[in-house]
Structure formats: structure tokens, C-alpha cells
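Late entry, evening session. Most of the bench is empty. Finally got around to the prediction I had been postponing all week. Sequence below, unchanged from the version circulated by S.P.
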Amino acid sequence: MAIIKWSSYGSYTAAFSAGDLKNKSNTARVLSGAIDNSSDCNRWIDLTCAAKYGTAPSAGGYVAVYLIPAVDGTNYADGDASVLPQASLLLAVFALKASTSQQLLASTRIMIPPCKFKLLWENQAGQTSTNTDSENMVSYRMYNESAA
């Protein structure tokens, strides 16, 4: 009988450039570059979200991350800075504390498709993110299971 284990974890990769998520107003959305999972066909992704605001996030504030797939390998589903994606593409919601300290949040063991995709970050904190590089960031690592 085979034993199913997690494969080796890779290191986290920044989904956005250092300045992409700085100084973003409430309801702002930012689309990442392409992430290609069509060759490795990883099943799982872990996300970390660093969030910092000059004014404490509003009660119930959060950061949302959507997965915008290119199921045919070329054309991405709707969802970008000006177009809200369909609700079924929501990948993770990071609840924020009412604090001006940097928050480090995580969501793990999220199933992903074997295709190219982009991540869409959405600020629903009720406040504008800080204007400093890398204080607001989303990073990811992808992995599989393996039989031993």
C-alpha cells in the first residue's frame, strides 16, 4: 500500500512587484503577472499576504485574492483592475485586524488548476494601503502529493 505524502515545498515567490500594492485605495484591484502551472501541474498552493495600512482597517476589512485562469492557455477569464471577477474565482480572503502594524496572514492547501493563471489582489480594508514598497505583498508556493 502506497503512503501519500506532501511533495517537497519550494520557496515562496512574490506574486507582485515590490511597489504594485502600495498606496492602493479601498476597493482597488491589482492583477499579477502570469503564473504557469500547465507543465508542473501542481494541485495545491499556499498564499501569504502582508498587509499594512497607515489608518487601521475598518471593522470587517479584508484583502481578497482571486485566481484568474487561462483555461485555454491564452485567454484569461474576466477580472482585472476595472472588472470584478466572478465570485467562483475567489481563492482566499484575509481578514484584517484594526491595526496599523504590518499583518502577516496565510491561507494553505488551496486547490489550483493545471493551467496558466494570474492572481488578482483586492483591497477591501476600508483604508488605503501604505505607500512603502513591499509592506503589502502576496507570495505563493505550489506543490503536490507524492506516493512513497
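Two things to note before I forget:
The two ends are 9 Å apart (CA to CA).
Residues 24-141 form a domain with the Jelly Rolls fold (CATH 2.60.120).
Will write this up properly tomorrow.
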